[in-house]
UniProtKB/TrEMBL annotation, chain B:
BP GO annotations: formation of cytoplasmic translation initiation complex
Keywords: Cytoplasm, Initiation factor, Protein biosynthesis, Repeat, WD repeat
Quaternary structure and interacting proteins, as annotated: Component of the eukaryotic translation initiation factor 3 (eIF-3) complex.
Gene3D superfamilies with a match to the protein in the record: YVTN repeat-like/Quinoprotein amine dehydrogenase
PROSITE patterns listed in its UniProt record: WD_REPEATS_1, WD_REPEATS_2, WD_REPEATS_REGION
Subcellular location: Cytoplasm
Family matches, as InterPro entries: eIF3i (IPR027525), WD40/YVTN_repeat-like_dom_sf (IPR015943), WD40_repeat_CS (IPR019775), WD40_repeat_dom_sf (IPR036322), WD40_rpt (IPR001680)
GO cellular component: eukaryotic 43S preinitiation complex; eukaryotic 48S preinitiation complex; eukaryotic translation initiation factor 3 complex, eIF3m
Molecular function, one GO term: RNA binding
PANTHER family: EUKARYOTIC TRANSLATION INITIATION FACTOR 3 SUBUNIT I
Species in which this protein is naturally found: Chytriomyces confervae
Function according to Swiss-Prot or TrEMBL: Component of the eukaryotic translation initiation factor 3 (eIF-3) complex, which is involved in protein synthesis of a specialized repertoire of mRNAs and, together with other initiation factors, stimulates binding of mRNA and methionyl-tRNAi to the 40S ribosome. The eIF-3 complex specifically targets and initiates translation of a subset of mRNAs involved in cell proliferation.
Protein name as it appears in the record: Eukaryotic translation initiation factor 3 subunit I
Length: 670, 334, 149
């Protein structure tokens, strides 16, 4: 889910009832006791001093009742302490605060709940007797990829139930696994589909393997948002509830290592995002908007970057797994507005506006990491806003530029960076002066993109463009000439060719098939739910349908199916989903009471080499014949089953009616 | 074919019924004035003026001479169809929810509502050949304990009375002893309509629980279920084809809060045996409250919350439509 | 007596003349009426004729417009059926067809387009599905190896 902005509208999602009803019970026992491990081992002379020092770490949390440091026979401490707090909440806060805390040069503390240690201890005990305990293999996290019918899975939340199913085209899906009350909030998949994430008051849990076993959990009270690294090695979590650190800072974001389950680092959240919990407390109706992901992963999960906007702006890049600041310093960028990673290279794009004083233009910059070499800049004028849209191969960077024509009116144009060509030439596409560009959508792995533009207050235009194959010198020159700004629609400016323009009242999204070529135009959320399937190869419409009050539309990872759904979280009337074929044939419509969410399980990139893939594509005719036979058999089997069922039903009905008829005639005689 | 629109009622329809010949269509509405129409062309024959409250139910004698109506004005009235004159009035303590003539037209029942400390009560009354002789005498009253009665009809050969209840229960009573014979909670929510097949061997029940059932009268066992995503207000059986029609929509209260487009105010046809939906007939601007099939099976009517009655004559295509698995030669003809 | 007779004759003659004059006057009057009537009738007939003429012209004009439009439609239709001008002969041939035949042709064309689209849709989904299945078959052992590692 590479979305740059996740809108969390908490007024729309009411969690309170869920929390009240299904709050997971606190573990019984010593929930007020925290075990601090990793402390220096000291003699009796320093015993009290160390205890006091460690106690002082919790002064911001308060409520320390007692602290005990076990000593061995030799009078040396064992390196751990038991700290008792007045309340479980304080204990929990203390764990978060102390875990991974650098006590001194040689000692990093860890914090655990006493109950957890108990659990671990038990595990250890059974482990020392290996002959009796069979070796438990780690579940095969990728077993689902080997389905013999080449199907895909989805997860569905309805009411309190969460279930994972195989999609069987229009037929009844097969249940893989389901649990009641699996998640207290929503669920989400990791980017390659290995893990299903569930949300709980205490944190998130990742599940995987054929039986969806619990793989790992991350304690982060009231966690609301998460973001996986692209390689599924790391997880970032966010909660509006601050964790009080020993140094008095409030941290909201934690970066975790998934394999070890350990916290790598936590971060405070600067500026606007801090206001989130307060505005929420103002009561219902308060809408919280958070830029999420707040920390952006590089394509190879090597770096994670976040920005500080404004005059003291900077991009801070941290290196995994140590999570140290790259080269120990942030990249200072005065007036930084926003940034994005290239999806295939360690290149960052960012932009800065024109300062109010001084004669400096607005600028889009591309910077390479870790060298910090600036590979391209582009100056722009009268800029109000810039949005970045990277093509999925990193071949193009489309900058959607909003400019001030006058004090109130705006014009839009596109600056398209050709990343693969020498010196990164930039094509400029001008739009009609009256058009307000609202969004842009790249075809995955393709050279085409779609634009949605608002003209006036009601007219909505959808434009399809294609990048000319070579950013020829002529095209670049032409774009230069046009840079002065032309009012008319630029049908063929620079290296982008207008393929088609449509006027569509009810459309606010273009959702490309992950395989490209097919683009779905949809009107979701505030719109009526129009859905159109377009073939971009010849720009013809394949099919038009409707899913009234549709809230979400998602392609399966293979581009064979599309699911449109109405989530009960947003619309209480007729929640459910429709499964469409890739060309817009409605396969099935399911009305499900309290249907909340449906998500296709993502797949990792194919392990086949390019040659292997090419060979398969080349031999289409051969295996297609074979599959045709299988398909025909399957279809006739289904048809036959339906036919037989109907025959049986009809025969039952006939005999029932005969019986009734006999009763009736007998009674009539009486 | 284009439907015929009957617009004579000022408020939402509560019940429509054809007479046994099918030439007349009777309608009751919340506007106090039941009407009678020619079913063939939609011409209004007349109104029955005299009630002071919403009319909940009506029934007509086999010979179409008398009409019985039950109203929220705490009366049940009998009318001469030809003249529109009220020939008798039963005064009751609460609103009259359901009325039904028994086979032979020598008795009738009406059910009074469970309100104001009263319980739902079935009143079985004799019907005199000459209305002049009609008295307030009652053959039997059956006090219904438990959930209130929403619909009531006579069962096969007057041996039973079948009632539908607010909690989704269907109950069978012995009209001679007043005893409860059988009871079955076939629905989750209030029963909105019960309509028998011609031979009374089975009946359709519809409910606010979004379903309609086809039920065997003898056992009260549900044989077929038809599921929608809206409350079902009425369901009827085709006398000719193995089809059922369902009508409904959301509760009147919720109608105003949603736009017209998303609403489903369609009469929905289902195959009675296979339970598949086979077609929809659009038209009403509000929920459909009552449905009736013409005795010939060639047309059906729907009465809506919007105050309209729509008479739909079915196309030839409809009668030609058939599953390969159906063989009508096997079926006994009544 | 003679005088009496003569005077009577005079009177008679007078009378006769009067009658004759009266008759003449009457005839003139009647002729006049007849003439006016005739003229009126003629005027009316003329008017009707004129009106008819106007109507006829209008009809002609409408027919002409209709024919023109039909031809335009036919032209468009012909162009559509003939494709991108590749097949000029077919186009010319089509231009000479009457509207009814053209309409039929259009219907046929629409049907053909529907069939083509359905065909194309089937092809697209089949290619995607079968390629995916072939890929998965090749992938499967690799996922297994992935786990064993």
């Amino acid at each position: 889910m590479p979305s740059s902005e996740l809108e969390i509208d908490e007024s729309q999602i009411d969690f309170s009832d869920i929390y009240a009803k299904y709050s997971v019970p606190e573990p019984a026992g010593f929930e007020c006791i925290v075990v601090v491990d990793g402390a220096p081992m000291v003699g009796a002379d320093k015993e009290q001093k160390l205890i006091d020092k460690i106690k002082s770490l919790f002064k911001n949390i308060g409520g320390v009742k007692d602290a005990v440091m076990p000593m061995d026979e030799g009078g040396k401490s064992k390196g751990y302490l038991f700290i008792e707090f007045e309340t479980p909440a304080q204990a929990k806060a203390a764990i978060s605060a102390i875990d991974n805390y650098k006590f001194d040069k040689n000692h990093t503390l860890s914090g655990n709940a006493f109950d957890d240690i108990e659990g671990f201890a038990n595990v250890t005990e059974t482990y020392v007797a290996p002959p009796t305990e069979p070796y438990v293999e780690k579940p095969h996290l990728r077993s689902w990829l080997k389905d013999e019918y080449a199907r895909d899975q989805w997860v569905v939340m309805k009411g309190d139930d969460t279930g994972i199913y195989w999609n069987n085209k229009g037929e009844m899906p097969d249940l893989v696994h389901s649990r009641p009350k699996w998640s207290d909030m929503y669920v989400s998949w990791s980017p390659k589909g290995s893990y299903l994430t569930t949300f709980h008051k205490q944190g998130v849990v990742l599940w995987g393997g054929p039986e969806f076993e619990k793989i790992v959990r991350f304690a982060h009270v009231n966690v609301k948002l998460i973001d996986f690294s692209p390689d599924e090695k790391y997880l970032v979590t966010w909660s509006h509830e601050p964790i009080l650190m020993p140094n008095g800072e409030h941290h909201h974001v934690i970066v975790w290592d998934i394999l070890s389950g350990r916290q790598l680092r936590s971060f405070p959240v600067a500026g606007a995002a801090m206001k989130a919990p307060e505005s929420k407390e103002k009561g219902p109706g308060a809408t919280v908007k958070i830029d999420w992901p707040m920390f952006k992963w590089s394509h190879d999960s090597k770096y994670i970057a976040r920005m500080t906007p404004g005059a003291e702006g900077a991009i801070s890049v941290y290196e995994t797994p140590g999570m140290g600041l790259l080269d120990k310093k942030s990249i200072k960028i005065e007036n930084l507005k926003s940034f994005e990673w290239s999806p295939t290279e360690n290149i960052l794009s960012y932009w800065t506006p024109e300062p109010e004083v001084g004669n400096i233009p607005a600028r889009v910059t591309l910077i390479k990491l870790p060298s910090r070499e600036i590979v391209r800049t582009k100056n722009l004028f009268n800029v109000v806003n810039v949005n970045f849209h990277w093509q999925s191969n990193g071949k193009y960077l489309l900058a959607r530029v909003e400019k001030a024509a006058t004090k109130i009116s705006r014009t839009h144009n596109l600056e398209i960076f050709r990343m693969r060509e020498k010196d990164i030439p930039v094509d400029v596409v001008e739009l009609k002066g009256t058009e307000n560009l609202t969004n842009a959508f790249w075809e995955p792995n393709g050279d085409r993109f779609a634009l949605i533009a608002l003209e006036g207050t009601v007219k909505i235009n959808v434009h399809f463009y294609e990048m000319n194959s070579a950013g020829s010198v002529v095209a670049t020159a032409a774009s230069k000439k046009k840079e002065g700004g032309s009012a008319a629609v630029a049908a063929n400016v620079g290296g982008a060719k207008l393929l088609k323009s449509l006027e569509r009242k009810g459309i606010n999204q273009v959702i490309w098939s992950p395989k490209g070529r097919i683009a779905v135009l949809a009107g979701v959320r505030a719109f009526q739910g129009d859905i159109e399937f377009w073939d971009a190869d010849d720009m013809t419409m394949l099919a038009a349908g409707e899913h009234y009050t549709c809230t979400d539309v998602e392609w399966d990872p293979t581009g064979r199916y599309l699911v449109s759904s109405v989530s009960w979280w947003r619309v209480q009337q007729d929640p459910g989903f429709i499964l469409w074929s890739c060309v817009g044939t409605q396969l099935t419509k399911q009305s499900v009471p309290q249907f909340k969410q449906i998500l296709w399980r993502p797949r990792p990139a194919t392990p086949l080499t390019l040659e292997e893939q090419k060979a398969i594509k080349k031999n289409f005719k051969e295996y297609s014949k074979e599959f045709d036979v299988v398909d025909a058999k399957e279809t006739s089997k289904i048809d036959k089953a339906v036919l037989e069922k109907r025959r049986a039903l009809w025969n039952d009905w006939v005999s029932y009616r005969r019986r009734c008829y006999e009763d009736w005639t007998r009674e009539a005689e009486l | 074919m284009r439907p015929i629109l009957l617009h004579g009622h000022l408020r939402s329809l509560t019940r429509i019924r054809y007479n046994s010949d099918g030439d007349l269509l009777f309608s009751a509405s919340k506007d106090n004035k039941p009407c009678v129409w020619y079913s063939a062309n939609g011409e209004r024959l007349g109104t029955f003026n005299g009630h002071n409250g919403a009319v909940w139910d009506l029934d007509v004698t086999h010979n179409s001479r008398y009409l019985m109506t039950g109203s929220a004005d705490n009366t049940c009235k009998m009318w001469e169809v030809e003249t529109g004159k009220c020939v008798y009035t039963w005064e009751t303590r609460t609103a009259v929810r359901a009325v039904s003539f028994a086979l032979g037209d020598e008795k009738a029942l009406f059910v009074t509502d469970a309100t104001m400390g009263q319980q739902s009560t079935i009143h079985i009354v004799p019907i005199e050949a000459d209305p002049e002789d009609q008295t307030s005498d009652v053959l039997r009253t059956i006090v219904v304990t438990g959930a209130k009665v929403t619909v009531a009809v006579w069962g096969n050969l007057n041996r039973t009375i079948v009632t539908g209840h607010e909690d989704g229960t269907i109950t069978e009573w012995n009209p001679d002893t007043g005893a409860k014979v059988k009871s079955s909670k076939n629905h989750e929510k209030a029963i909105t309509d019960i309509q028998f097949s011609a031979d009374k061997s089975h009946f359709m029940s519809s409910s606010k629980d979004h379903t309609a059932h086809l039920t065997d009268s003898k056992t009260l066992k549900v044989m077929k279920s038809f599921v929608t995503e809206r409350p079902v207000n009425s369901a009827c059986l085709s006398p000719l084809r193995p089809h059922v029609v369902l009508g409904g929509g959301q509760d009147a209260m919720d109608v105003t809060t949603t736009s017209l487009k998303g609403n489903k105010f369609e009469s929905r046809f289902y195959h009675a045996v296979f339970e598949d939906e086979i077609g929809r007939v659009k038209g009403h601007f509000g929920p459909i409250n009552t449905l009736a099939f013409h005795p010939s099976g060639r047309s059906f009517s729907s009465g809506g919350e919007d105050g309209f009655i729509r008479v739909h004559h079915l196309d030839e295509d409809y009668f030609e439509f058939k599953y390969d698995e159906e063989n009508f030669d096997d079926l006994p003809q009544l | 007596e003679e005088r009496r007779l003569a005077s009577e004759r005079v009177i008679l003659i007078e009378k006769r003349r009067e009658i004759k004059e009266y008759e003449a006057a009457k005839k003139i009057r009647e002729d006049e009426i007849k003439r006016i009537e005739q003229a009126r009738k003629e005027a009316e007939a003329e008017k009707v004729r004129m009106e008819e003429e106007v109507r006829r012209r209008e009809m002609e004009k409408i027919a002409q417009i209709r024919a023109e439009r039909e031809r335009e439609e036919a032209m468009k239709l012909a162009e559509r059926i003939a494709g991108d001008g590749k097949n000029k002969n077919i186009k010319d041939e089509l231009m000479n067809l009457d509207t009814k035949t053209l309409m039929d042709k259009q219907l046929e064309l629409l049907e053909q387009e529907k069939r083509d689209l359905a065909n194309k849709m089937r092809q697209i989904s089949k290619r995607l599905d079968h390629t995916e299945r072939a890929m998965r078959r090749a992938e499967s052992p690799k996922w297994e190896a992935d786990h064993v590692e």
